[in-house]
Amino acid sequence: RTTLRWSSMDRSSSANLVYGTCSNRERDIFQRSDLQFPGPLAEGNPVRIPPDCFVHVMDTNKKIARVLLGPQNYTLLACEQVVFGPKKLIDLGDSWFCIIQNPVVKNGDTVEHDENGAVKLRFGATEVRKGRMAPFPLYPGEKLEGGLGHFTVVRAETGLVYENCCASFALTACRLRAKIDIVEDSLGLPTKRIANQEWLLPGPATYFPTDYVEIVRVLLAIVLVQGESLHLEAEQAHSDAEGVSRVVGEQWLYEREGPYIPLIGQKVIGKVVALQTNHLRALHLCAKRTFVDRFNKKRPAGSHWLLTAEDTDTYTPFPAYEAFMGFAHPTTLTPTQYCIVCDVAGADGQPQLGKRQLVKGPANFFLQPCETLLQGEIFVRSALIKSC
Predict the structure, then answer these.
(1) What is the reported pTM?
(2) Cβ(264)–Cβ(308) under 8 Å?
(3) CB under 8 Å to 161, separation ≥6 — which residues?
(4) pLDDT tens digits along 263-279
């Protein structure tokens, strides 16, 4: 019967190291027990490193750790002890990546060491390692940030704001942010980006991760059908999708049918549905502030007006400037009826207070918002003649 000697590592890691010889039953008993490892390995104990694994061995005199790759059996010296591992080598598939903190300094494929034999590290930096590379270990000082990640898929109608990496399609886009001042070519041309600057990578495209660009989020396209508009507001000065310059706080409607991905600096307030007019109903609108409407008419703040089928078949009220008060219905007169309209609206749409107008049937017309009927009634001619 042999005696087991254990390192000061945790039990799960140490169970993979075999010091001396022991039976499978003894090993199983130890793995199921709550025994604590008494300390570092003694001189001469072999460390068994399985294939595709690595360990960190520290020289306790110099306080310098180095990497040992498997498969091998390594006999520790008196001044050495295992401080990490054994762990599996990091193996990345074609569509996988990982982020390494404090990566080692390399000259080509060779890791550089200082005069004491310790690996050189780029402290505070990060390095993105993508698939299609040989399995690799973590050197002393390196850390794996967040585990392994899969490429983000971005379709044609969405967009992505960059943080790691992505593949974009036609309905998606990636929104990216630069961590530092860099020159990048995600859009096909070398472009200078300043720190914290954001931009979109529209789909379809594939973006490969870099160390100094982060993905903010994936943007999905907003699909507009016939009769729908998008109410947008500018959060910063920019040129919109149609090339119009927008200032901060400006609001407008985007009315083109199809998918739309909001640009950097645009805030989506909501969708606006167009209203229809016909010979039986008109739109009653009110101006929230003074502006010029799409018919090039100036509308003072607080003014009311009607839009009928003679003006337009469909109309989308602009929520920032005008309010929809409701539908107006026509007044219909038969050949034997008449009415008197009070405060008749002038050519400019303003009420002419005190002015009245007699309307005889047959007739079909809309009362302007400022107009009313005398006594609110429609009179019959025959009743008037008999009373006289």
Answers:
(1) 0.58
(2) no
(3) 174, 175, 176, 177, 198, 200, 215, 216, 217, 218, 219
(4) 888 999 999 999 999 99
